Amino acid sequence: MRIGIAGCGLIGGSLALALRDDHDIVAYDPAGTGDIRPVPRLDDLLPADAVIVATPLAQIVPTLAALAARSGGALLLDVGSLKRDVVAFARSAPASCSIVGGHPMAGTTERGYGAARADLFRGRPFFLVPTDRSDGSAMAAAGELVRSIGAVPTVVSAVEHDRIVAILSGLPLAVALALARTGADVSEFAGPGFRDATRLAATPPELASALLKGNSAEVRAALARFRAALDDIEKDLE
Amino acid sequence: MRIGIAGCGLIGGSLALALRDDHDIVAYDPAGTGDIRPVPRLDDLLPADAVIVATPLAQIVPTLAALAARSGGALLLDVGSLKRDVVAFARSAPASCSIVGGHPMAGTTERGYGAARADLFRGRPFFLVPTDRSDGSAMAAAGELVRSIGAVPTVVSAVEHDRIVAILSGLPLAVALALARTGADVSEFAGPGFRDATRLAATPPELASALLKGNSAEVRAALARFRAALDDIEKDLE
C-alpha cells in the first residue's frame, strides 16, 4: 500500500519505521522527516491507500479537513490523544471520506523523529474509534494496519476513549505536576521513587495543556475519583 | 575498621558490598547474608568500630537497644527511613553510647540481598541525624563512612528529616496508591507514563505502612499541601 504520514515526530516517525518494510511510505513534516522519504506539501501525501495524521493535537482536525476534501478512497487515520473532536469533525466531513480515529497507548516523554522506534507499538493497545465516516472496510483496514505494527487494535467509542485517557494520561499528569510543586523545595534529595512519580511533570506544555484543558470534563471526573481514593488512604492513617 | 551490619537486605547488603574492600565486615541476618561473612548472633557483631543497623523499620529501635547495652566505643548508625523514634531512644540510652541516625536516599522497590549493589549510594544524599548520643567524633566517623561509599552526608534534624521523607516518600506513595485504585478498571491500557506514576504502589505493605502510619502527622501535612497544589491545577482547567 502507499501510506502517507502527516507529522513525522515520535509517533508518526515510529509508525513510518514500523510500516516501511511492507509499504511505500512518504511523509510530510515541515520540521523534517528523518530518513523517511519526504513530500513537499501535505497535499502530496495523496493519492494514497491511507494517510496517518500524527501532527500535534491542535493540528489534527485542520489537517484532516485539508486532506478530506480530496482524499479519494484513502483511509484517514489520526493518532491523537483525544478523540471527540475527530468524531465531531467526521460528522460533517464529505460523505465520500473514510475517517477512523486512532490512539496508540505508547510513547515516551521524548519527542521528535530522533526518538522514533519501529517497535514503539509492539504489544501495546491501539485504540480505534469509529466515526460517522468509518464503514466496515475502513475499520478493517485500520485494524490491519495496527496489527501489522505489532499493536493490539481495541475498538472503543470516543466518549469511552476520552474517559480512559483522562484516567491514564490526564490524571497522572495533573498529579505529577502537583507532586512536583509540593516537593520543589526538597527535590534535591529526591530518589528514584519521587523522580518516577513526577516524571510526567516534564510533559511538553502544549501536550500537557491539550491532555488537561482539551479533556477537562473527563479529567475533572477522574480527579474527583482520585480525591476520594486519597481520602480513603488518609483515613487509614488514623 | 571492623564494621558489623545488622540486617543484610537491600540496604544492609549494599552497604556491606560498598564497604568490604576497605573494612573488615561481618553481618547478622537470620534470613541470610549472601556472600558477606555471617555471625551467628546479633551480639557477635560486637566488639566493633561501628555497627550499622539496617533491619526492617520496626526492628531498628529494639536492635539499637540490644546493641547499646554493650556497644563499648562502637558507633551505632541506623539507616531506617524515619528518625524521630531513633532520636527518642537515644535520649534514654546508656551515656557511654554513640548513636547517629542515618538514612540513605537511595533504593528500589526490589528487596533483599539479591538486589544489593555496591554502587547503590553513589552520588546520593545520605541524611545524618544527630542524637543526644552523637558527639563530634561520632558525627565525624559517620560522615567518613558515608563519604567512603560515595554518598553525600547531609546533616538534618530528626523533625526536618521526617518532614522531607513525608514529602519525598510518604506522599508519593499515598498518591501512587490512590492513582492505582482510580485506574484499576482501565489499567490493562496503561502505558509507561501511568506505570511509572503508580510504581510506588508496589512498595512492600509493611514498609508502606511504616512510611505512612509511622510518619502520619507529617504525611498529613504533605497531603494538605499536595491537595492545595492539585486544586490550583484543577482551577487552571476552567
Q: What does this entry look like structurally?
A:
The structure is a homodimer of 238-residue chains. By secondary structure, chain A is α/β, with parallel strands linked by helices. Chain A folds into 2 domains: 2-156, Rossmann fold; 160-235, 6-phosphogluconate dehydrogenase C-terminal like domain (6-phosphogluconate dehydrogenase C-terminal fold, Orthogonal Bundle), CATH 1.10.3660.10. Chain A has 8 helices and 7 strands; from the N terminus they run βαββαβαββαβαααα. A 7-stranded mixed sheet of chain A has the order 2-1-3-4-5-6-7, sandwiched between helices. In chain A, strand 4 (75-78), helix 3 and strand 5 form a beta-alpha-beta unit. In chain A, helix 5 crosses helix 8. Chain A starts with a strand and ends with a helix. At the A-B interface, helix 5, helix 6 and helix 8 of A face helix 5, helix 6 and helix 8 of B.
Kindly summarize this structure in a few lines:
The structure is a homodimer of 238-residue chains. Chain A is of the alpha/beta class and 238 residues long. Chain A has helices at 10-19, 57-68, 84-91, 136-148, 158-182, 192-197, 205-213, 216-235, and strands at residues 2-6, 24-28, 50-53, 75-78, 98-104, 125-130, 152-155.
